[in-house]
Amino acid sequence: MDPLETIKYRDFEIEIYQDEDAESPREAWDNLCTMTCLHKRYDLGDKHDFSSSDFQSWIELKKALMKNHGAYLIEPLFMLDHSGITIRMGYGFGDVDPQGWDWGQIGYIWTSREKILKEYGVKRISPEIKEKVQRIMQSEIEIYDQYLRGEIYGYTIEDPVGDSCWGYYGYDFEKNGLLDDARNAIDWYIEQTVQMRAEANIMEVGN
Fold first, then answer.
1. Pair (159, 136) in one structural domain
2. Final residue belonging to a domain, choices 148, 170, 185
3. Dihedral, CA atoms, 114, 118, 124, 125, nearest 10 degrees?
4. 192 and 105 share one domain
């Protein structure tokens, strides 16, 4: 597999690849929110026992989540299916597909009052905490969307550095920490090499 991009740093090459073996963040991560999705062709969001035949409308699903699962903060989820899939919270894709041919609601993202209280160690949910949870909810959607679009990456640095790391979300390699980690690995190798040579010179002089 050819690298998507090769970046030179201190005479070494950082090769960046798409992470094709990345786990879903809905399974591998400890999330504050739950994504309950119903779709005929795609298995999306978190695992659940619901079926699309159980409900006549999205409102019925919302009421079931609130009544039976304690959904406190709850927002609709929408998916655009066109040369790949992408999702949004709270509103649809009318800005890119005004006719609505390729998008629609797929479920809800939600969390319970009990989970919020436990997460923040409080007895009541203040407006500030509610705002924080809404930001987390949006962040979980963005991360899962990057996973669905295949925007997860890793890097390799060939010998003598011989380092690699995977699981960086998003195509901005400066922002997601990929380049910082790769550069740090090179810096560490160079520092260790310089130190080892200095120690070898001292031993040679001593002999």
1. no
2. 148
3. -80
4. no
Cis preceding linkage at 160, omega within 30: yes
Angle made by CA atoms 12, 18, 24, in degrees to the nearest 5: 135
pLDDT of residue 51: 87
DSSP characters for 129-180?
HHHHHHHHHHHHHHHHHHHHTT-EEEEEE-TTT-EEEEEEESS-TTTSSHHH
Say how many domains are in the chain.
2
Structural domain ending residue among the three candidates 104, 124, 148: 148
Q: In the structure, how many helices (H) and strands (E) does the chain have?
A: 5, 8
Interatomic CA distance for residues 76 and 109, integer angstroms: 6
The residue range of the domain holding 55 is 25-148
Q: Which residues of the chain have a pLDDT value below 70? A: 199-207
